[in-house]
């Protein structure tokens, strides 16, 4: 391997899960030039990793808009240009770490003669020539990517990695000073894209009151611009600080690195905390929980139901019993052990 393209365009958590690929390639091929194709939303998580030669931006929104506007000729012209751009890098290896039809086609577009990836229901493997199932132990964090690393014949004694820019830490320090968080704080990451992975807003509100009563530490809420209204509801009537929509993704990651404890659902911000070896409580219900990580300070709260994990197909009429079963009291008791370890 001399010039390698990793295709993992989103989502935030999966980009973190795929990060061991970088170390694995560099261990066996130290002179390899690694390029990562990503959407703008995750670019800031990768651009300061010195083991990545370049983060190539995938203009997803542009292509979607052209399709929506039925500008098919323009779309095909721009796709052709994008393919030529990828080919100009002269990749010898492409790794489709996303497992979708679109990501496999992009790996094929790259012109790399060797193209690794996963079999999928979308027949993406038809555009690849080194294909494996999504194997591994599903309860081990990032298991499918470790399986892919083994399939590629690389040393898989590697770990999750998140290398942020110094500016992200500088901006996090400004927020810490602004909100008087210098003596330590707890970060909550309550938001995700699928409703069945959410814990209930009133449970978060009760948890905040209990955490403040027991630990007497400042609490921050992290999330995107789209989460601001929900974060406002959760923090109303508490002294928790609503930072949803007020940080870039790398700044949020830097704040997590500086937190005494992170509590969150199955979402990218929570996974970033795990990757940065921070004490973390992860709340799982509709998805398969990871019970094995490289981080000894991770506690997973998960109550098994007959219907779980339902993933994207809940059958509980939106009751989400698996998340209802998690109580604020249980979370606080778990937090007590982790805060002791950290302090």
TrEMBL record:
Transmembrane segments: none annotated. One of its GO terms (biological process) is lipopolysaccharide core region biosynthetic process. Keywords: Glycosyltransferase, Transferase. Its EC number is 2.4.99.24. The keyword Transferase applies. It catalyses: an L-alpha-D-Hep-(1->5)-[alpha-Kdo-(2->4)]-alpha-Kdo-(2->6)-lipid A + ADP-L-glycero-beta-D-manno-heptose = an L-alpha-D-Hep-(1->3)-L-alpha-D-Hep-(1->5)-[alpha-Kdo-(2->4)]-alpha-Kdo-(2->6)-lipid A + ADP + H(+). It is an enzyme of class 2 (transferase). Gene3D superfamilies: Glycogen Phosphorylase B (3.40.50.2000). SUPFAM superfamilies: UDP-Glycosyltransferase/glycogen phosphorylase. One of its GO terms (cellular component) is cytosol. It comes from the Bacteria. One of its GO terms (molecular function) is ADP-heptose-lipopolysaccharide heptosyltransferase activity. The keyword Ribosomal protein does not apply. Belongs to the glycosyltransferase 9 family. This is lipopolysaccharide heptosyltransferase II. It comes from Hydrogenimonas thermophila.
